[in-house]
Amino acid sequence: MMRFNSLKTPLVQGINLTKIFRYGLIWGEPVEAVKNVNINLLRGASLSLTGESGSGKTTLGKILLGIIRPTSGKVLFNGIDLTNPKRVPKYIRRMMSYIPQHPEEAFDPRWRLYDNIAEPLRIHKLIGSKEEEKEIIFKLAEDVSLDTSLLNRRPFEVSGGEIQRAVIASALATNPLFMVCDEPTSMLDISTQADILRLLKNIRDKLNISLLFISHDIEIASFMGFKIAVMLKGRIVEMADVDKLINEPLHPYTQGLLGIVKVEYVSSYAKNCRGCPYYDRCPVKMLPCREKEPKLKNVGGDHYVACFRY
Ligand SMILES: Nc1ncnc2c1ncn2[C@@H]1O[C@H](COP(=O)(O)OP(=O)(O)OP(=O)(O)O)[C@@H](O)[C@H]1O
Ligand SMILES: [Mg+2]
């Protein structure tokens, strides 16, 4: 078994990550879905990613899990390079799990919830007998407060909140150390949303899981993380502790997301640009912003911002 680094070294390290999607020869220019991102996640810590639709949150989350291979850069999981898939041992894969943006991505609609939850256990051959499997599945259902009488149903025979609990149970089946939750509540009504968020928080704290939580809603993102990173056109443009970012946001885009300044809403279809990725919409832009891209820099404490004004 491998030894785990001390609490001070990151469990997950994204180093200079860039992902460029190309669309054939004729169709338009390549899209920089993630650009020059550096990100660290300590053992048991939570980081939230927020930013408008198309800003690259899902792509970054999947790169950190080794699901998407970056165009350049590296991901280290406890020192093991995930961007070199042949070198990643199976037992490392099961230490990571993904709760996708759409439950259909996680579950097969033809299978009962029971079999869907059991799938990762079966893939990784972590169970001996049928009885043992049943015991584990029932325990998982209990952990996520899913009524065990629902385990016989198929995904379309339960509510959105129930299926989300089942998806979480399945994600926990292999005892992960690192979990990415991608907009896990965007399809739910407000009160079910709150239940699921509380559940995720409890699980994270109880099991000491490192959580990357993705939400386009900055309020939800700040509820879940200790730290929060704001994405725009594939870049991280601001990152800080939650309190700091919410009370003293510096980037005009973050201020826009928080409703402090009014901005024109345009979906950030990740077009490539030379200057600041916010240039077109920024209410306080200056001359250099058009030609040069500001780097993410430390402005004191753990607060980082990519804006020439600071
Ligand atoms: N598989 C893919 N092939 C080509 N382009 C992609 C692919 N996945 C994402 N993109 C593009 O990369 C950019 C970032 O997409 P991504 O899904 O990461 O954004 P997001 O922040 O998760 O958005 P949302 O909030 O809508 O989920 C978008 O311009 C998107 O169109
Ligand atoms: Mg997404």
Radius of gyration: 20 Å
CATH class of the domain at 1-89 and 208-310: Alpha Beta
Average pLDDT reading: 89
Shape: globular
Based on secondary structure, the structural category is alpha/beta
Strand order of the largest sheet: 6-7-8-3-9-10-12-11
Question: Order of helices and strands, N to C?
Answer: EEEHEEHEHHHHEHEHEEHHEE
Tell me the distance between the termini: 46 Å
What ligand species are in this complex?
adenosine-5'-triphosphate, magnesium ion
- The number of helical runs is 10
Question: Into which percentage range does the β-strand content fall?
Answer: 15-25%
Going by CATH, the homologous superfamily of the domain at 1-89 and 208-310 would be P-loop containing nucleotide triphosphate hydrolases
- Tell me what the CATH architecture of the domain at 1-89 and 208-310 is: 3-Layer(aba) Sandwich
Describe it.
The structure is a single chain. The protein has a domain at 1-89 and 208-310: P-loop containing nucleotide triphosphate hydrolases (Rossmann fold). The relative contact order is 0.15. It starts with 11 loop residues before the first strand and ends in a 5-residue tail after the last strand. A hairpin with a 2-residue loop joins strand 9 and strand 10. It has 310 residues and is α/β, with parallel strands linked by helices. It has helices at residues 57-64, 90-93, 103-106, 113-123, 130-143, 160-172, 190-207, 218-224, 242-247, 252-257, and strands at residues 12-21, 31-41, 46-50, 72-77, 80-81, 96-99, 178-182, 210-214, 227-232, 235-241, 297-298, 304-305. The protein is built from ten helices and twelve strands. The radius of gyration is 20 Å and the shape is globular. Helix 4 runs parallel beside helix 6, helix 5 (130-143) packs across helix 6 and helix 6 (160-172) runs parallel beside helix 7 (190-207). The chain has an eight-stranded mixed sheet, sandwiched between helices. It has a four-stranded antiparallel sheet with strand order 2-1-4-5, with helices on one face. The chain binds adenosine-5'-triphosphate and magnesium ion. Adenosine-5'-triphosphate binds next to strand 2 and helix 1.
